[in-house]
Amino acid sequence: MHVGESGTPDGRPVLFLHGGGVGGWMWRPTTDLLPGIHGILPDLPGHDRSAGMPYASHAETVQALAEMVERRAGEPLAVVGFSLGAQLAVLLAAQRPDLVDRVVVVSAQAIPTRAAGPLLGMLRAAAPLARIPSFARLQARELFVPPTLMDDYVRTSALVSTSTLVASVGENIRFTVPPAWSEFPGRALVLAGSRERGFMQASARVLHRALPSSELQIVEGCGHGIPLQRPEWFAQRLGAWLALPDS
């Protein structure tokens, strides 16, 4: 995986995991407002500068992320994930609490989609549309991608292969809360937007119930894309939460 960095090497290490169809660049509006942290920003398999290695599964990706964290971080770190990346953040925290001391879960689906097979079949047929710039720009609006990042989105969308799209979405819509999540000993913050689809808010509540020590917040006025829709609020919320003492 390609791994970018932000902030200062001496700052608190924070691993940022992007959503499907975007890249590590989606966190730029957040990390620009948090220069004191040491941001670690991978492009997940099949995405942007990691497009050469197709997305295979959550399990393989979490293993690769764990190995990357072991090489790069000399201490347990915080993990911040959005959508697809939020599911990976939950899995990494659940499986490797020795590497993760706190986790922020933003808009993670945790209730499996019914009739996943037909949905993935339609997705496979429609996959070439993502490589058309005009279509990509329409999709970008759903994620609140700002004009300053639009070229990044169009580029990344064109690089996502059909196999990566189907595999990553398939893992996303079949995701369930791992049993070990309930034993995560660190701090956890679960966020969802008040204007997201109902099952996304329900998913946030499922994750919170599975780990009662976590903090749940439904962010008023936000859809699926909190870090890009309200970057100033998100950066302030994240910065204050990272400054809290260990649980």
How is this structure best described in words?
The chain is α/β, with parallel strands linked by helices. 42% of the residues lie in helices and 16% in strands. It has ten helices and seven strands. It has helices spanning 28-31, 58-72, 84-95, 116-126, 133-142, 150-159, 162-173, 198-210, 226-229, 231-242, and strands spanning 3-7, 13-17, 38-42, 77-82, 100-106, 187-193, 215-219. It has a seven-stranded mixed beta sheet, with helices on both faces. Strand 4, helix 3 and strand 5 (100-106) form a beta-alpha-beta unit. Helix 2 (58-72) crosses helix 3 and helix 4 runs antiparallel to helix 7. The longest helix has 15 residues, at 58-72. The two termini are 32 Å apart. 47% of the residues are buried.
Order of helical and strand elements? EEHEHEHEHHHHEHEHH
Report the strand count.
7
Radius of gyration over alpha carbons?
17 Å
Strand arrangement within the widest β-sheet reads 1-3-2-4-5-6-7
List the uncertain runs. none
What is the helix tally? 10
Shape: globular
Strand percentage, roughly?
15-25%
pLDDT averaged residue by residue: 94
**Share of helix among residues?**
40-55%
Roughly how many Å apart are the termini? 32 Å
Q: What about the largest sheet? A: 7 strands, mixed
Category from helices, strands and their pairing: alpha/beta
